[in-house]
Design a protein that fits this description.
The chain is α+β, with helices and mostly antiparallel strands. It folds into 3 domains: 139 residues, Uridine Diphospho-n-acetylenolpyruvylglucosamine Reductase, domain 2 (2-Layer Sandwich), CATH 3.30.43; 110 residues, Uridine Diphospho-n-acetylenolpyruvylglucosamine Reductase, domain 3 (2-Layer Sandwich); 252 residues, FAD-linked oxidases, C-terminal domain (Vanillyl-alcohol Oxidase, Chain A, domain 3). It is 26% helix and 18% strand. The chain has 13 helices and 20 strands. A 7-stranded antiparallel β-sheet has the order 15-12-14-13-18-19-17. The chain has a 5-stranded antiparallel β-sheet with strand order 5-6-10-8-9. Helix 6 crosses helix 11 and helix 11 packs antiparallel against helix 12. The two termini are 28 Å apart.
């Protein structure tokens, strides 16, 4: 039977299982699901052949059995907000398995700060849930949409602002559905009855070989639920804001920040942005600018939104008391004051709960440092859209015609490495006609993530192709000097580094064991 006939038969069976309203066939609705922020075939990503919209975990095994029987590949997607990382597109032709309808929140422990979520639970939904509980625990937010999936962000090893910023390092107790219909629970979840599973959600590794990592950044199974560790709200919060006028001092500053992270003074993520990136979040490319080349520095510095700093950064000191916070502040000021041109501290103290966070009238950053969802960071991807262009509400860059390509590179948390990676990224972005929108985030003491952002207007002829070329050139150049990708979109799978050992062969044997019929679209292999 041909692939077309196999798909047709599978769609008929899926319709019997879910109803016609939950099976999306080719047409305007599927076209909407296939909207993305880069060229459709760029880097090998593919539009969905059809889409399935289950509303419960119990429906999934039957859907996968149909896929296996008819040899149809499926591609699970949690909420479809991975703009710049492929959105909902798969790395090969597949049927989209849209899990956004699975919205269960359960097993909240108000004493230990643990909660379980299904794939469709968004940052906004979880915030609202914790607010209703008057919780003293929060989940740090991502720079993407409030309507992005919490579970999806964790599995892709996304990051957040504040403590617990390495999302996947603070999850456990994964419930995984294999294409065979088997269900696997990681850690102690394998051994405990669901009604007595408290230990499973607080002890990450369980006993024996740990399996959690097999289902992060992979296509080996569907994670249908996991447990999240939430962060306690501080009783004293100091926002640390700093900046450089001279980019030649960047390396020394980054080394000092590394020391403060290593010695435990900083207990939260550190964010650093160049002036192009800062301006892009509050303004649009000036009218009359040559859209075929990067905005010259002189033009950037003439904009009223220019911050008068080449690099701006923030971190925060989360403390259990004002005394603890002030001690950390004194040490921070002693270390950073000689190295920066601007250093400011903003403080708020008191007893906090979700919905009653510690806020500061002059600093909206206090909101996202305590897990309040926002769209501010998302506005950068509209930088090259014409002023006055209509915007979706909530923001949807794919629907609004924004071109977005993320490049995500890991590097050692050392000044010389950041300076080298920044110089390389700036040169290639400008050569390809894009502003160097650069951000660097540290969620750990020894490693940092550099994230050059390629943004453009998809309505401009040739912009998709130019962006794809820049994306590939950046990944290749960064990898050549040892800065490898820590996260890849479906359009970027060709940039996966070539293994120097038996990794590919071992992963293939694991894939054949867990997904023998090849139901799931392969990723990272």
């Amino acid at each position: 039977m041909s692939a077309v006939a196999q798909l047709s038969s599978a769609l008929e069976e899926w319709t019997e299982l879910l109803g016609s309203e939950a099976v999306v066939r080719p047409g305007p609705e599927l076209d909407g699901l296939n909207r993305t922020t880069q060229a459709r075939e760029s880097g090998g990503s593919h539009a969905a052949l059809a889409a399935l919209r289950p509303t419960s975990r119990a429906q999934l095994p039957d859907l996968l059995r149909v896929a296996a029987r008819h040899q149809v590949t499926v591609y699970p997607s949690s909420a479809g907000k991975s703009w710049g990382l492929g959105t909902r597109q798969a790395p090969r032709p597949a049927v989209l398995l849209d899990l956004s309808g699975l919205r269960g929140i359960s097993d909240f422990d108000p004493r230990l700060g643990v909660v379980s979520v299904e794939p469709g639970v968004t940052f906004q939904q979880l915030y609202d849930y914790l607010k209703a509980q008057r919780s003293r625990f929060f989940l740090n937010v991502t720079g993407s949409s409030p309507h992005a999936s919490v579970l999806g962000n964790a599995l892709e090893r996304g990051d957040g602002a504040g403590p617990y910023a390495d999302r996947f390092a603070h999850v456990c107790n994964l419930e995984v559905l294999l294409s065979t219909g088997e269900v696997l629970r990681t850690g102690f979840g394998s051994f405990l009855e669901e009604q007595a599973a408290d230990l499973a959600s607080v002890a990450r590794w369980g006993v024996g070989p740990t399996l959690d990592g097999l289902f992060s950044q992979s296509g080996l199974g569907i994670v249908t639920r996991l447990s999240l560790w939430l962060c306690p709200l501080p009783r004293s919060l100091h926002l640390v804001s700093f900046g450089l006028e001279d980019p030649g001092r960047l390396g020394r500053l980054w080394d000092a920040l590394s020391e403060l992270r290593l010695d435990g003074t900083f207990n939260a993520s550190i964010g650093l942005w160049n002036d192009y990136r800062v301006v892009s979040s509050v303004a649009r490319l000036p009218e009359g600018a040559d859209r075929g080349r990067a905005l010259p520095r002189a033009a950037l510095e003439a904009m009223p939104e220019w911050p008068r700093l080449r690099w701006s950064g923030t971190t925060a000191l989360y403390a259990a008391s004002p005394e603890q916070g002030h001690a950390a502040r004194i040490h921070t000021e002693r270390c950073l004051r000689p190295l920066v041109d601007r250093l400011e501290f903003f403080e708020a103290s008191g007893d906090a709960s979700v919905g009653r966070e510690l806020l500061h009238p002059e600093q909206p950053a206090f909101k996202f440092l305590q897990g309040i969802p926002h769209e501010h960071s998302l506005e950068s991807v509209y930088w090259r859209k014409p002023r006055g262009a209509p915007l979706s509400a909530p923001l949807d860059p794919a629907a609004d015609g924004c071109g977005v390509n993320w490049v995500c590179a890991a590097l050692p948390f050392r000044g010389r490495d950041l300076v080298r990676a920044v110089a390389l990224s700036e040169r290639l972005l400008i050569e390809h006609g894009f502003e160097p929108l650069l951000a660097c985030l540290s969620t750990a003491p020894r490693c940092a993530n550099l994230a050059p952002l390629i943004v453009y207007d998809r309505d401009e002829p040739g912009a998709d192709e130019r962006a794809a070329q820049c994306h590939d050139a950046l990944y290749a150049a960064l990898a050549e000097v040892g800065y490898l990708p820590y996260r890849l979109g479906s359009q970027s799978m060709a940039q996966l580094p070539r293994a120097r050992d038996s990794r590919a062969e071992v992963l293939e044997r694991i894939r054949q064991a867990l997904d023998p019929a090849g139901v799931f679209a392969r990723r990272y292999t």
